[in-house]
Amino acid sequence: LRAARSSPHGDQEFQLGAREALLFPVAGSAMLLLLFYYFKSIQSIYILMCVVTTSTCSFLCFQPINFIRPRPLVGSCTTSDLSAAVISAALIALWILYNNWVAIDILGATSCIAMLSFIRVSSTRVVLVLFAGLLVYDIFW
Known about the structure:
Helices cover about 70% and strands about 10% of the residues. The strands form 2 sheets. A 3-stranded mixed β-sheet has the order 1-2-5. The radius of gyration is 18 Å and the shape is globular. It is mainly alpha-helical. Helix 1 (about 20-60) crosses helix 3 and helix 1 packs across helix 4. A hairpin with a 2-residue loop joins strand 3 and strand 4. It is built from 4 helices and 5 strands; from the N terminus they run E-E-H-E-E-H-H-E-H. The mean pLDDT is about 80.
């Protein structure tokens, strides 16, 4: 990823180049091979990583939703932060306890939204390389 720059909202954005776009499917393939051969050894670490990642992504996606007027609770924590944390925790609990497919789909969508909000693509060539690599990844695996 190239140099980070600030967005109008104060978040950091990363420029994705053609080389990085090509490395996405390669890294995904390496992760699939690692999980295939060593899943018994790293199962608990993998599940913990998935829980932390999906809860963070869902928190980031649900944070702008203001069900009630945001008021400060403790320090910089507001009511919208608290409502986002409750929604994220409920989705994670549905996923872990009941293996609910709706919760899994929502968590996957929030992960994609969070990724798209942090990464900017510099040209259509980079998008073409990324999509071609992901198509080969999808067909091969």
